[in-house]
Amino acid sequence: MAIPADCYRVVIVGHATGNEIFQFGWFVKGTAPTSDADANTVAGQWAAIWAANQANIKPLVLADSGFDSVKVYSYPAGGPAAAHVGIAPITGGVGTGATAQPLQSAMVITLGTGLSGRRNRGRIYLPANGLALATTHNFNNGDTLQVMNAIKAMFVAYNTPNAPNSAVVVVSSVGSTSNKVSQLSVDERTDTQRRRANRAARGTIQTATV
């Protein structure tokens, strides 16, 4: 049970209010970097793809937050440990959101492969600490559509020139499988990154004697 061979993980790294760090990402199957230098090159390619399509994602986070860099973890011979790691900065990733939300708020993109079972689906937790909600207390449909289409555009921008040798996939370390992502969906409900919520600074606590 491990990450299949010839895969690499793309991780978007950013910062939020109070110097909190967030990360999210996806896997790619095929042409996994075989050196740190190659991993840096691939990270640079994804950083350029992200920068070109991030305009509709930046409203998710406040201006004191942003998307900083892309890391690539390469598994040319399989996992669980990455054999090579690369990093590249993201240009112009400062957030443009203007409505403060809890730091653990997230918009979730579900990655489908056309196959049933949890191991054949993936999830991307996008931070959403600065996006205004609708009167239903959910995300506006227009916002979810824009974010989903931006992620789709990134995947297409990578898959098209690299087909058929490489594509964005869902990896199951339990089943040691990788299947190409064929569908994206996003729920208008806000979600919570529980691990981030558990680490959030408590801040000032008001008390009163009764």
List the helices and strands and how they pair.
Elements: E1 7-16, E2 20-29, H1 36-53, E3 66-75, E4 84-89, E5 105-112, E6 122-127, H2 141-162, E7 167-172, E8 177-180, E9 183-186, E10 191-192, H3 194-199
Antiparallel strand pairs: 1-2, 1-3, 2-7, 3-4, 5-6, 5-9, 5-10, 7-8
Helix pairs in contact: 1-2
Helix-strand category: alpha+beta
pLDDT < 50 stretches: none
Estimate percent helicity: 10-25%
**Percent strand:** 25-35%
- Counting DSSP H or I runs of 4 or more residues, the number of helices is 3
Q: Largest sheet, if any? A: 6 strands, antiparallel
* Rounded Rg: 18 Å
Measured between the Cα atoms of the first and last residue, the distance is 57 Å
Which sequence of SSEs, written as H and E, runs from N to C? EEHEEEEHEEEEH
Mean pLDDT: 91
Shape, please?
A: globular
The structural domain count equals 1
List keywords for this structure.
about 20% helix; about 210 residues; alpha+beta; four-stranded antiparallel sheet
Q: What does this protein structure show overall?
A:
The protein is α+β, with helices and mostly antiparallel strands. It has one domain (7-197). It has helices spanning 36-53, 141-162, 194-199; strands at 7-16, 20-29, 66-75, 84-89, 105-112, 122-127, 167-172, 177-180, 183-186, 191-192. The strands form 2 sheets. The chain has a 6-stranded antiparallel β-sheet. Strands 5, 6, 9 and 10 form a 4-stranded antiparallel β-sheet that branches. Helix 1 crosses helix 2. The model has no long low-confidence stretch (mean pLDDT 91).
